[in-house]
Automatic annotation (TrEMBL):
This is NAD(P) transhydrogenase subunit alpha part 1. It catalyses: NAD(+) + NADPH + H(+)(in) = NADH + NADP(+) + H(+)(out). Keywords: NAD, NADP, Nucleotide-binding, Translocase. The keyword Translocase applies. InterPro entries: Ala_DH/PNT_CS2, AlaDH/PNT_N, AlaDH/PNT_NAD(H)-bd, NAD(P)-bd_dom_sf. Belongs to the AlaDH/PNT family. Its EC number is 7.1.1.1. The lineage of its organism: Bacteria, Pseudomonadati, Pseudomonadota, Gammaproteobacteria, Lysobacterales. The keyword Glycosyltransferase does not apply.
Length: 361
């Protein structure tokens, strides 16, 4: 019997993305799977039910009831997890260790969870890397929010009323989101700088037309991620950064350390020293923010500076974000499908290192 893949409507507040598009639905059907979806799963991303039906999906309100594999963007509510078929496969951005009830529901139901945020960051895994694909959309949207909030033009303009100087934009963090933010700000005509404590990012920043802001502090770590700075390094970094920020118009913060709260890089004192009308958009708000004054989900006028802490920015670009996310999910699920049935090759590090609970634990 063909494996049943189920997808339900996302229930998290403000979530518009979907883990299955008509394109990936068609691919799953071609691979021998039977796809069942709740009506309306793609409404937020503008994928109509008819498009799924045309791709071979069966529309059912109880789409998850008998599903052998469940695909999602954000984790289903704990009661939904508790009602899934025992031993079912669950694929998505699950963060099981962030919620005790969620972790318990997964264990008690014997679900085979594959939290894609645990996927090894290898060349082979790039086509399945949901963190990177969604960060790209988030970085893009963050700059557009900054441009909207700023009381200035981004580009230099020569007009009959005089010359308008370009805005000075600083992107903090040069991961996927930061690099997309640099590229977007540059396209808008701003004078762009990129700051990252990993010196190897200089070439990437400069390749996008940005200037690398070198504060003389390196935090190069393993696997392409930054390590935590020592107290002395942080103090020196902050002293030099505070001086530099006095001439910056817009800051977009994107710095993150996996599995830990976002590093505090922009202090309240730094914000107080910025020019009136400056803007900070803190993409790291979901994990606490890079700015000390960030309030997740809020945009606050601090008198001289506007500080925005938007959440789930990828969902603002739901259609393209869903297309990328769904392809990531399909590429991973394809590793589990053999002739229309589920099969697990535990010698494959992508499966072995992503599965939760870890095998044998």
């Amino acid at each position: 019997m063909a494996v049943i893949v189920g997808v339900a409507r996302e229930t998290a507040s403000g979530e518009r993305r979907v883990a299955l598009t008509p394109e990936t639905c068609k691919k799953l059907v071609a691979a021998g799977a039977s796809v069942r979806i709740q009506p309306g799963i793609g409404d937020g991303a503008h994928f109509p039910d008819q498009a799924y039906a045309d791709a071979g999906a069966e529309l059912r309100e109880d789409a998850l009831a008998e599903a052998d594999a469940v695909l999602c963007v954000q984790p289903p509510a704990n009661p939904v997890l508790a009602g899934l078929k025992p031993g079912a496969v669950l694929v998505g951005s699950l963060q099981p260790q962030a919620d005790e009830g969620r972790a318990a529901a997964i264990r008690e139901r014997g679900l085979l969870a594959f939290p894609l945020e645990r996927l090894p960051r290898t060349t082979r895994a790039q086509a399945m890397d949901v963190l990177s694909s969604q960060a790209g959309m988030a970085g893009y949207k963050a700059v557009l929010i900054a441009a909207q909030l700023a009381p200035r033009f981004f580009p230099m303009l020569t007009t009959a009323a005089g010359t308008i100087r370009p805005s000075k934009v600083l992107i903090v963090g040069a991961g996927v989101a930061g690099l997309q933010a640099i590229a977007t700000a540059k396209r808008l005509g701003a004078q762009v700088e990129g700051f990252d404590v990993r010196p190897e990012t200089r070439e990437q920043i400069e390749s996008l037309g940005g200037k690398f802001l070198d504060l003389g502090v390196s935090a190069a770590g393993e696997g392409g991620y930054a390590r935590a700075l020592t107290d002395e390094e942080r103090a020196e970094q902050q002293r030099r950064l505070a001086e530099h920020l006095k001439n910056v118009d817009v800051i977009v913060c994107t710095a993150a350390v996996p599995g830990r709260p976002a590093p505090k890089i922009i202090s309240a004192a730094m914000v107080a020293g910025m020019k009136p009308g400056s803007v900070i958009v803190d993409l790291a708000a979901e994990t606490g923010g890079n700015c000390e004054l960030t309030e997740p989900g809020q945009t606050i006028d601090r008198g001289r500076v506007i500080v925005a802490g938007p959440l789930n920015l990828a969902s603002m670009g739901a259609q393209h974000a869903s297309e990328m996310y769904a392809r990531n999910v399909y590429n991973f699920v394809a590793l589990l499908l053999k002739e229309g049935a589920l099969a697990f090759d535990w010698d494959d590090e992508l499966l072995a290192k992503t599965v939760w609970p870890e095998r044998g634990k």
